[in-house]
Design a protein that fits this description.
By secondary structure, the chain is an alpha+beta fold. The protein is built from eight helices and 15 strands. Strands 7, 8, 9, 10, 11, 12, 13, 14 and 15 form a nine-stranded mixed β-sheet that branches. Strands 2-1-6-5-3-4 form a six-stranded antiparallel β-sheet. The structure holds 4'-deoxy-4'-aminopyridoxal-5'-phosphate (PMP). The site of 4'-deoxy-4'-aminopyridoxal-5'-phosphate has 13 residues, from helix 6 and strand 13.
């Protein structure tokens, strides 16, 4: 069965959905996106994603094309139309179709392109990978300087994923000036002596919605949190490591550049945070 997707006001079978070849998203990667998880047919942390979307658009001088409530209604409609129980809703907004190719931004009244689609991922919450953890390599971070804006410029993260595959591991951690920034599509953490350490927010990493929630839950559970950069050496010598993202929640990292982290098995802090995150997020899902 083909998916029903949303394009500029219409719900259509995926084969009928079309975007212009002149779209700024296609020609210039001039667009932003969000991915919201669905558990038990409900949206996880929708308000956080809507807020970050508004911020990303604002940083690029683009207007929010509709209210957060209207966006929520479209998300819910797609979840219902596609009978999604566990999975994701992907949303992308570009600067639209100016009718030709030009580096300059088109007039501000050019209609943005708004596309949403669902991805069904049965078993997302019970992902067995969380019980064994993943392995990563490190790779230089050569992305642009505004990684806090969630743009669709994902070529380098895709290349980093391919480098990880080639090295027979699952993901890559970016390193800049000797310090870990983040994963290809996630925020990263180490745990030492019970303390959770993760890079502070800035323009050099995406402000993860899952990161914000997990740090809030950690502090509420009286866990110690320190927001500062760390090196690969420090991560390899840590008791545990993990990453967070909207689609993977909290995921243990058990090996970095061929060296086991701690016992080489998922740690108790990551397991506890995953459990708290899933419980609390489900309770608050809309
Ligand atoms: N950093 C990067 C580079 C990402 O692509 C993502 C996921 N899109 C994240 C961090 C995690 O953000 P979130 O928790 O909002 O999914």
């Amino acid at each position: 069965m083909s998916r029903i997707v949303y394009v500029n006001g219409e719900y259509l079978p995926e084969e009928e959905a079309k975007v212009s070849i002149f779209d700024r998203g296609f020609l210039m990667a001039d667009g932003v996106y969000e991915v919201t998880s669905v558990l038990a047919g409900k949206l996880i942390d929708f308000a956080g994603h809507a807020e970050r979307l508004a911020r990303s658009l604002g940083e690029l001088d683009m207007a929010m094309p509709m209210s957060a409530d209207e966006l929520l209604a479209i998300h819910r409609e797609l979840v219902a139309k596609n009978a999604i129980d566990e999975g994701m809703v992907y949303l992308q907004i570009t600067r639209g179709n100016p009718g030709d190719r030009d580096f300059a931004f088109p007039p501000a009244d050019t209609k943005p392109t708004v596309v949403l689609f669902t991805q069904s991922k049965p078993g997302l919450a019970a992902n067995p990978v969380a019980k064994v953890g993943i392995k990563v390599i490190s790779i230089p971070d050569i992305r642009w300087g505004r990684r806090d804006i969630k743009t669709v410029q994902l070529l380098y993260p895709s290349m980093a994923k391919m480098a990880a595959k080639k090295a027979h591991v699952d993901d890559a951690w970016f390193v800049e000036d000797g310090m870990v920034t983040e994963g290809t599509s996630n925020n990263v953490y180490i745990v030492k002596g019970g303390k959770i350490i993760t890079r502070h927010l800035g323009n050099d990493i995406l402000h993860g919605i899952t990161r914000a929630a997990v740090l809030r839950f950690a502090r509420e559970a009286q866990m110690e949190v320190e927001e500062r950069p760390f090196t690969i050496d420090e991560a390899q010598a840590a008791d545990e490591a993990f990453f967070t993202s909207a689609s993977a929640f909290v995921m243990p990292v058990v090996e970095i550049d061929g060296k086991p982290v701690g016992t080489g098995k998922p740690g108790s802090v990551a397991a506890r945070l995953r459990e708290i995150y899933l419980d609390e997020s489900l309770k608050a899902a809309v």
